[in-house]
Design brief:
Length: 132
């Protein structure tokens, strides 16, 4: 076990949720190279289906997507997997909505585009907080 009381599995399991496919693909590749097991999803519906099949330590969830409101997806995640930490991603000018996400149970939020190292730090923080 590590200092957070979790069993070391080697890889942090991350669920990426964003309707910008190019962004998701680049981010997934970069996270995978840093010992993270990444599941890419391109919509709220697809992410919910993925969460039904597998557990994740952290979800990185876009606030504004074509098919779904990120806050609504967050609320569903909280019911389905209350132990999974969620980091909200938001565009400039939507910080208020992201703060609403934190109030609804998100671990934290970052403004897009965010620095990879900043996102990595948040994911590691969030995974360390996750209790299993």
């Amino acid at each position: 076990m590590n200092e957070h009381g979790r069993i070391n599995r080697g890889h942090i399991r991350v669920l990426l949720v964003d309707d910008e496919e190019g962004y998701v693909n680049v981010l997934a590749n970069r996270l995978s190279r840093r010992k993270m097991k990444v599941r890419k999803t391109y919509s709220g519906v697809e992410a919910i289906q993925a969460l039904r099949k597998e557990d994740y330590d952290v979800a990185v969830l876009d606030l504004k997507m074509e098919d779904t409101d990120g806050i609504e997806v967050l609320k569903i995640f909280r019911k389905m997997a209350p132990e999974m930490a969620v980091i909200m991603l938001t565009g400039h000018g939507s910080e208020r909505a992201a703060r609403e996400g934190v109030e609804a149970g998100a671990f934290d939020y970052l403004t897009k585009p965010c620095e990879l190292e900043e996102l990595m730090h948040k994911i590691r923080q969030a995974a360390g907080r996750t209790v299993r």
